TrEMBL record:
Identification of the protein by name: Adenine phosphoribosyltransferase
Pathway(s) served: Purine metabolism; AMP biosynthesis via salvage pathway; AMP from adenine: step 1/1
Quaternary structure, from the entry: Homodimer.
SUPFAM superfamilies: PRTase-like
GO molecular function terms noted in the UniProt entry: adenine binding; adenine phosphoribosyltransferase activity; AMP binding
Keyword Signal in record: no
Species assigned in the record: Allopontixanthobacter sediminis
Catalyzed reactions: AMP + diphosphate = 5-phospho-alpha-D-ribose 1-diphosphate + adenine
Domain Phosphoribosyltransferase: 54-144
Record gene name: apt
InterPro entries: Ade_phspho_trans, PRTase-like, PRTase_dom, UPRTase/APRTase
Protein localization: Cytoplasm
Entry's EC annotation: 2.4.2.7
Length: 178
């Protein structure tokens, strides 16, 4: 399936979570077997070309695509978690949200020093979570130069922010607006 066919599998929910927002819902994409498989294959090809030695995915939807890509490539998956989810000593980074802050954590033993870790997530909007994940993975010793997404919302500037931070960014599809 090409990117246009995959794009048609993404449901748009108007006015969620607030009026004027066009929410891009991947539930319909991941529920479509051939579409999910084609999406994972597409991301895996890009990760392999980038020399992935491990895949990192942010909780929660990054786990769906990231773990599948890691399995496809036969490499490890690094879960980037919300706070308090890991039963061991973690390292973490706080980052700004539109209204407040959030935190990401990772098991530093999950990463080998200098390991080429590719970030995989379902969607890039403002880029705050992906930037925080890249910072955190680098703190753990990873080399993080690439981020892959199923969907880019370019009008929100996240991919541009990641590029300014030195990351190569690719997405399978884009949706204009927010």
């Amino acid at each position: 399936m090409d990117s246009d066919a995959l794009k048609r599998l993404v449901r748009t929910v108007p006015d969620f979570p607030a009026p004027g927002i066009q929410f891009r819902d991947i539930t319909t994409l991941i529920g479509h077997g051939p579409g999910l498989s084609a999406t994972v294959d597409n991301l895996a090809r890009r990760a392999e070309l980038a020399g992935a030695e491990a895949i990192a995915g942010m909780e929660a939807r990054g786990f769906i695509f990231g773990a599948a890509v890691a399995v496809k490539l036969g490499i490890g998956f690094v879960p980037v978690r919300k706070p308090g989810k890991l039963p061991i000593q973690t390292i973490g980074v706080d980052y700004a949200l539109e209204y407040g802050t959030d935190r990401l954590e990772v098991d530093p033993a999950a990463i080998t020093d200098g390991q080429n870790v590719i970030i995989v997530d379902d969607l890039i909007a403002t880029g705050g979570t992906a930037l925080a994940a890249a910072e955190l993975l680098r703190m753990a010793g990873a080399r993080v130069d690439h981020a892959l997404f199923v969907i880019d919302l370019p009008d929100l500037g996240g991919a541009a922010s990641l590029r300014r931070a030195g990351l190569s960014v690719e997405a399978i599809m884009q949706f204009a607006g927010d």
